Amino acid sequence: MNLLSMGDLDREAIERITDHAARFAEVSDREIKKVPTLRGRMVLNLFYEASTRTRGSFELAAKRLSADVVNFSADGSSVSKGESLKDTVLTLGAHKPDAIVVRAPWAGAAELVSRWTDAAVINAGDGKHEHPTQALLDVYTLKQRVGKLDGLSIWIVGDVAHSRVARSNIVAFGRMGAHVTVCGPPTLIPRGIETLGCDVRYTLDELPGADVVYALRMQHERMAQAPVPSLREYAACYQINERRLSARQMLMHPGPVNRGVELSGGIVDSPQALITAQVQAGVVVRMAVLYTVLSGARTQAPLPEPQLA
Amino acid sequence: MDSQTKVVLRERDIHNALLRIAHEIAERNPDRQAPALVGIHRRGSYLAERLAPWLAELVDEEVPLGDLDIALYRDDVVTRADTPVVHASHVDFDVTARTIVIVDDVLFTGRTVRAAIDALFDYGRPERVQLAVLVDRGHRELPIRPDYVGKNLPTSRNEHVHVHVRELDGCDEVLIAGARAAVGA
Q: Which residues numbered 104-123 in B keep a CB inside 8 Å of some CB on A?
């Protein structure tokens, strides 16, 4: 079984993973914070992009379940010597990993990897496409806080164009019954985004109606041209700060935060910010994901039909 | 009910068996701190819940009660076709230096108990671990022996033993069913 896209998971599957995550939370309270469930299985972290929290939480999640972890990062490996993604996967396949966690700057990379290996493939972010485990941990964080997402109004604000988190979260929040609105400057809202099941706004005028405000990071490193005149101008129009966010609204952010750009410094540390809870959820949700893709007989998992989303 | 299904213990028998087990636990753990009870999810935890107040009265001391889900400790996680559902375990007391009685409904191959012992040791280092089961149906695959048994029930390997508890199933009874007459449980 692979986890390539939120589109692969229906509501029931999302609930199953988040329910498992809630139960795995107890493991971290034990004297021995480790269970032998995935003993002898190997998880390969294949990271072509800088990432601290995603990689760290996958590694910790695998270790809590007693799986072996091998980290493979792009710099300092044969990638810098020109090896292709396919050759890398085939070479590393010789170590017989049971799961490969893929983070890459290219949309569809995880899906490609899944064609070249029998291991379960987990997409940990592929370019501007998807980041399904982030969406799952956000659903989990909200469920822990408010019980269910049905009827919640969730605003995803900021750089939607470059955001794989936005694409996965629109789908995940929608499947869980929330009403999703994306908001940002027109240059950062891709055309046709509403086909994922969301409304589009270009100003924050209706923001007070939101129950949850999900701010996205301004990804300057992905911006080839200048979609906004300056970060200061962006902040003037779209920054979520004490003035724009009321006390009853919850604030989320996938991290890392650019303080003073998409969020004001003060709001990050306010009690309505769930940002730390999101980071904590990362480990238990990824335990649940690894458990889901790695339990069950190995021969059971047929390779899925290639699906280009 | 299927003609191949037979009731072997009724509500009264189960009550008496558990009451006797409570007395035996008290008797065998005389001059030490009261043992703690840990039920194995799910039906074992209901049986442990019933034993606890009786035992507390007999030893005149509070009896810590917990429950364990052994899904994460199974030896067949990677071979069985389905993904076992995991439930949270609750062991909110310190197990170190205590006598712990593991409580389960049916003792069969012993694999569940092996997993429960492993799980228990992740919470600390118990002084002693004992095992109480409502039904011992034989066919052990591991060197595991119960300390307290409600009823020894000789069975053939392809029969099914079903324990029903009122908290989950509406009534207390133990059934034995032939291989083809398996009732859902």
A: 118-119, 121-123
